[in-house]
Amino acid sequence: MPLSHVRIVMINTTHPGNIGGAARAMKNMGLADLALVEPKEFPSGDAIARAAGASDLLDRARVCATLDEAIADCELVIGASARLRSIPWPQLDPRECAAKVTGTTARTAILFGREHSGLTNDELERCHFLLHIPCNPEFSSLNVAAAVQVVAYELFHAGGQRDDGLASMVDETAYANGVQMESFFGHLEDVLREIGFLHETKHVMSILRRLRRIFNRTHLEEKELHLLRGILTGVQRRIQSSR
Questions:
Q1: Assigned CATH topology for domain 178-241
Q2: Which CATH class is domain 6-167?
Q3: What average pLDDT does the chain have?
Q4: Nearest alpha carbon to residue 124 among 151, 93, 86, 176
Q5: Predicted model pTM
């Protein structure tokens, strides 16, 4: 299946009917990988009723305790957000998102946040791109299941339009996944503290957030990440030898 590498991740969903509606939208458009991060109520009869024939997706859905668990094996992470953030973030509309996702074989997670508050800044920091669905500015917040439907349709359309000639152009690069990136960010923070770049001030979190943005925007390949980790290890060895 052309969209088998795509995972829909729903975070802290309050209404189980939205989970069922999202599952139905996914099955309509050829998506089958659903992960739920701390849903308020699941399993649920309301979810099954709204799924309307897509209950098999609900049966296979993975319930995760944390977002990191849901995206651990993902190399590309995109976060859907109804509102634009104060810190500029690489942004895609649904059609651009679909083109990017169907143009790669990298395991991809598309995140959908809470019904009333969306994704937190910490969750957005796990993302390479922000996905924004343009709407009527006077009523700009989509129901989460409707948002999944919009994105799923664009993915289905983009995947279905690709013929054999274009399929050979799909990017098969091995990108760093969620676990590898979090380990790298922890290593980077350790080294920055060791060399005295980070001080215990109110600006530390802001600096680390901006560094995350730099590397997430770059979308590191596994080999590039290994190179950076090697540099950081070399810095630590030099520090230790000079003590």
A1: Helicase, Ruva Protein; domain 3 (1.10.8)
A2: alpha beta
A3: 89
A4: 86
A5: 0.79
